[in-house]
Design a protein that fits this description.
mainly alpha, 3 helices, flat
Length: 57
Amino acid sequence: MATGVALLLAVTLLILAPNLGEIVAGITGTALALAAVVVIAIALVATWFAMRRASVR
């Protein structure tokens, strides 16, 4: 599984490499803030799913 993920990341990087300068230049503060909010939301949902069955004593 980990080898497949590593291979997928390597191929994706090879595809994006020619445009990497434009991609980095196009990142704005708004886009960065939006990405942070999305990551936080995903983490909250994942934590909720993981902890919903936990018993509190």
